[in-house]
Amino acid sequence: PKVPARPGNVAVAWNALREEASACTRCPLYRDATQTVFGEGPLDARLVLVGEQPGDQEDLAGRPFVGPAGQLLDRALEEARIDRASVYVTNAVKHFKYEQRGKRRIHQTPETPEIQACRWWLDQELDRIRPRILVALGATAARAMLGKAVTISRTRGAPIPLDNGVEGWVTVHPSFLLRVPDEARKAAERARFVEELRNIGERVS
Ligand code: URA
């Protein structure tokens, strides 16, 4: 018989899911990463943000978006009047993929098999949270969300209907904003990102 849905059950099931994810071997990335970095945020969030994969700091902390890109994201959300605590934040790939160069661990972009293997976890998260809006930050997240490669510049700015009535959006990754070399262009790109987040925030409030 089906167990009636009670808040306690939701939390128990969620913890079991996280536990299972912490032992994930669906792709080889678990071998070199410190730990699985699962998503974080309220399970009734109306807005889910998907990044690429944990970076160096996230891998060590076990939490998504806590390093430089996360700090930029925090500030952008604040400016967009979105409370990060109300948002579920996760990544398309849940283990850090890197190349060791001396003491440094250099980020490597995950490839299709890794994104596909990890899509299972994203589906688990989305099935439970059932957000109104899903935002892909950057090309890897967009690929995970849409199941195909897309160009950010051609895909951003308009809602994309997804399964279960979820509204998808694609925008840039905060790390891209950190890397724009020209200061004026960086400011313009950042302002555009904040504007997109603000519009999205209005759609979920
Ligand atoms: N970049 C991401 O895509 N995700 C993180 O969690 C951190 C940096």
Automatic annotation (TrEMBL):
Family per record: Belongs to the uracil-DNA glycosylase (UDG) superfamily. Type 4 (UDGa) family.
Organism: Sphingobium tyrosinilyticum
Location of this fragment in the whole protein: 258 to 462 of 465
UniProt name for this protein: Type-4 uracil-DNA glycosylase
Domain of life: Bacteria
Ranges for domain Uracil-DNA glycosylase-like: 38-198
